[in-house]
Design brief:
With about 110 residues, the chain is an alpha+beta fold. It has one domain: Beta Polymerase, domain 2, CATH 3.30.460.10. Helix content is about 35%, strand content about 25%. It is built from four helices and six strands. The chain has a six-stranded mixed sheet with strand order 3-4-5-2-1-6. It is globular and about 35 Å long.
Amino acid sequence: MALACLDDMKAEDTVEIDLVGKTSIADTMIVTSGRSHRHVGSIADKVIQELKERGFGNARVEGLPACDWVLIDAGDVLVHIFRPEVRGFYNLEKMWGADRPGDRLAG
């Protein structure tokens, strides 16, 4: 659901990272980019709306006012939405091993 929503909102460079066996915080982490503050905010709003409409409860959200980086914690799935410059600074894909052969680009 989250990946389809990101695709609908024209999120860029979406990466899905399998966290099973790496941490207990979630099963999947999705990292994606928006082109601007407004785009990041719009993507986040859409994901949050879809989660609510599909009965996944209230996700915890961080960073929405500034929209440099928004984290949506939906329990088993974490969605990070960055502006490109901020994404490069934090480099979560490398930290969580998305560059390893078993992990894949979404989309």
